């Protein structure tokens, strides 16, 4: 009797495993974007324009490539973005090759040097909630 019960449990497990696998349920892999495309994070690229036409989701990765002797990337809030100021809550990256995961909602980025920020090294990226699993 115990052997028959074990066969039923095993068969049920296998059936659900096959159904789950065949149902197409899978998690979306995060997209990876190089900020500024070939130009990178620099004042030569209009950073406010770069996100336009792209669809971002929470969990996607932005890669910031830049000269770490000249620039940095600051994850800021709306006020810091709008005024080109770094607040106590801001997070500064300065490796020259930074990978930053987007959170749901507005993500604000600036260069910590106010002159570079005011010259256009700042952007807002809106990340939608990840699409539902299929």
Automatic annotation (TrEMBL):
Alphabetical list of Pfam families matching this protein: Cu_bind_like (PF02298)
Molecular function via GO: electron transfer activity; metal ion binding
Ranges where the Phytocyanin domain occurs: 31-129
Signal peptide per UniProt: 1-27
Lineage: Eukaryota, Viridiplantae, Streptophyta, Embryophyta, Tracheophyta
GO annotation, cellular component aspect: plasma membrane
Entries under SUPFAM superfamilies matching the protein: Cupredoxins (SSF49503)
PANTHER family listed in its UniProt record: BLUE COPPER PROTEIN, EARLY NODULIN-LIKE PROTEIN 22
Gene3D superfamilies, alphabetized: Cupredoxins - blue copper proteins
Protein's name in the database: Basic blue protein
Keywords: Copper, Disulfide bond, Metal-binding, Signal
Source organism: Ricinus communis (Castor bean)
């Amino acid at each position: 009797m115990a052997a028959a019960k074990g066969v039923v449990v095993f068969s049920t497990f296998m059936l659900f495993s096959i159904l789950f696998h065949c149902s197409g349920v899978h998690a979306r892999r995060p997209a990876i974007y190089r900020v500024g495309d070939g130009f990178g994070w620099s004042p030569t690229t209009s950073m406010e324009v770069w996100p336009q036409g792209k669809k971002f989701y929470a969990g996607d990765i932005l890669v910031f490539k830049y000269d770490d002797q000249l620039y940095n990337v600051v994850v800021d809030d709306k006020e810091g973005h709008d005024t080109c100021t770094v607040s106590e809550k801001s997070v500064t990256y300065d490796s020259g090759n930074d990978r930053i995961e987007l959170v749901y909602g507005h993500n604000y980025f600036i260069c910590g040097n106010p002159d570079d920020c005011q010259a256009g090294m700042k952007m807002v990226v809106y990340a939608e909630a990840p699409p539902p699993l299929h």
